Amino acid sequence: MSESMSPAASARVGFLQTHPRFGEVERNLESAARRVAEAPPFELLVLPELFSTGYLFRDRPEALEFGESVDGPTVRALREWAASRGGSIVAGFAERDGGRLFNSAALAEPDGTVRVYRKVHLFDRENFIFDPGDRPFEAWDVETAGGVVRVGVMVCFDWVYPESARSLALLGAEVILHPSNLVLPHCQEAMRTRCLENRVWAVTANRTAEDDRGDLRLEFTGRSQIVAPVGKVITRAPADGECVVVEEVDLAVARDKKITERNEIFGGRRPDAYSG
Ligand code: ACM
Question: Distance from the CA of 106 to the center of ligand 1, in angstroms?
Fold first, then answer.
C-alpha cells in the first residue's frame, strides 16, 4: 500500500450494464463512452467482459482479428474515460500478445496506470479460442481522493471456482471487480456466498441480450449487481436494458473478518486439513 495514503473509509463503486453489438467495436465504444460520461461520480466502475467486441467468436482466427494490445483502442478508451471522470474503470477485452490471445480485463486509473488480469478459468468454447491466463490472481491498491482501496479482478466464469474470490480476498482485496458475460443462471446468487465467505464487496457487471451468429447463439442474463460482505444484494439491475448504477460502500466492513469473537475467517482456516 502507498505510504502516503491511508485506507479509504468508503468508495463509490458501480457497474455499467451494456448491450454490445457483435463485432461493432467503434459503435460499442461510442455507446459505452456516452454511458460512462453520464454516470454518477465514482471511484471504481466495472464494465462487462469483452464489452467492445461482443462475446461469441466463431473460432480462434476470428477472435485473433479482434485482439488488441494494451495500447489498442479499447484500453485507450478506458484510460481516457478514467482520466476525464477522475475514477478507475475496469472492463474486459480480447488481449492479443503476439500469437497469444487472452480473455483479459484492464483496470485503468485516472493517472494513466493500467493493470491487466488474464482470465484464469475459461468457459466452454473459450477453451479453444483463448489461451488460459498465465499469471496468478493479484490484488491492487487503487488511490482515490478518500484513500486507498484494495481491489481484485476476476472475470465471469471465475465465479464457479471459490478459489478465485478466496485468492483475491487472501491478498487483501476489499472489493472484487467482476466483468462478466454470464449465460448460466446461478452466478448472481453464488456471488452472495463468495462475498459472505470472504467478507468482501463484489461488483458484477454483466451484459444483456444475445450474440446471434446464425448457427451460433448465446443469450446473456443481465442482472448486474453489487453485493455486500454480509452477502446482501445492495442493488441489482434488470435482466434487460443498459443501465449504470453507483453506490457508496463502507470498506471497514470488508476489513473486519471476524464472524464471532473467536472466529476470524482467514485465521480460522486449516490448510493442513484440506486437500487439492
Ligand atoms: C463466461 O465466462 N463468459 C460465461
Answer: 17
| Domain 10-273 grouped into CATH 3.40.50.10330 | no
Mean per-residue pLDDT over the chain, rounded? 97
Cα of 217 from ligand 1 centre, angstroms? 14
Sheet containing strand 100-108, edge to edge, reads: 114-118, 100-108, 88-97, 44-46, 10-17, 243-250
Active site (catalytic) residues: 49, 119, 156
- CA of 64 relative to ligand 1 center, distance in Å: 18
226 contacts 191 by C-beta, under 8 angstroms: no
Q: Per-residue pLDDT tens for 166-206? A: 999 999 999 999 999 999 999 999 999 999 999 999 999 99
Distance of CA 194 to the CA centre of its chain: 14
Distance CA 27, CA 30 (A): 5
Over the range 215-225, which residues count as b (16 or more CB within 10 Å of their CB) and which as e?
eeebebbbbbb
Chain-centre distance for alpha carbon 141: 15
Collapsed DSSP state (helix, strand, coil) of residue 254: helix
Nearest-CA neighbor of 222 among 17, 39, 55? 17
Nearest ligand 1 atom to the CA of 181 is 3
For residues 104 and 118, is the Cβ–Cβ distance under 8 A? yes
**What are the start-end ranges of the H helices in 174-273?**
187-198, 252-255
224, 188 Cβ separation under 8 angstroms = no
Give ligand 1 pocket residues (Cβ under 6 A): 49, 123, 156-157, 181-183
Place of cell 475467517: 265
61 has pLDDT over 50: yes
